[in-house]
Amino acid sequence: MSEWDIKKLQILRTLSERGTVTATAQALRMTPSAVSQQLSNLAKQLGVPLLEAHGRRVRLTDAAHLVLRHAEAVFAQLERADAELAAYAHGEAGEVRVGAFSTAVPALVVPAVRALRAAAPGISVRVREAEAAEAYELLAAGEVDVALSLAVQAPASPDADTRFTRESLLADPLDVALPGDHPLASAEGLRLADLAGEPWIFGGSGPWSEITRAACEGAGFSPEQAHSASGWTAILAMVEAGMGVALVPRMAAARRDGVTMRELSADRPRRHVVAAVRRGAAAGAAISRVLTALREAVPERGEVKPPTPPR
Fold first, then answer.
1. pLDDT of residue 91
2. Model confidence, pTM
3. Element (H, E) at 200
4. Nearest CA to 247 among 220, 210, 274, 273?
């Protein structure tokens, strides 16, 4: 029987995710030569070639992909084992690291932490603010236990990515931010399509860019990106200055003089706030309690009222 080395399999999986030996070494805090040596030893143990030359780089062989398909099941089972052991040893105690994008921290994470302090004081939550696009990288690297990210649509079931279990926590409506003196600021029955000819302000890449583009394309047009920004303070300042319009999630909306927030009467785009854990880890008592607290924090945000149109 072949010898399966978990540490070496993790190196192989990281190479599959990162694409190069150098990137793998950086992610695992190893030297490139150590990565190559470990993978060479794994190939000898398994009796199959795992890497092949591809230009100046290497790529995984078909045998390596076969090994990883089976290894994912092993990693998931080990996560379950760790979770069950932690539950057995600590009960309701333990530390859970949560990675969340900026607007999710006050809207979901803080209410969840407050509830846990009262219901399960033995559970410690360590929060790490991170861009939504980073969530799955941090989760895969083991740097967080629960990751909150964004998606255009709710996660499909079953999940296509076998490394994670994901669920949609909240469908957050998107309102449009207009300069206060914009001709459409007080228009009745405002639709997203009415803004097709406007200059738009949104992030240059990542989930928020995808969400804005998808919402506009769903309304029948491709938005002209006049300016790029990721922070809501900067975006709303530019809207106030008349530099463009922007979609703003209800969760992140903040009052600003000179900016009119309008609920869209049709189209009604939404962004989905998604919670993800490594597959198998949700069986742990502490992580399960944190996920439950996040779910219970959602109704509070679901009651956010739409902006009131100007009179």
1. 52
2. 0.70
3. strand 199-201
4. 210
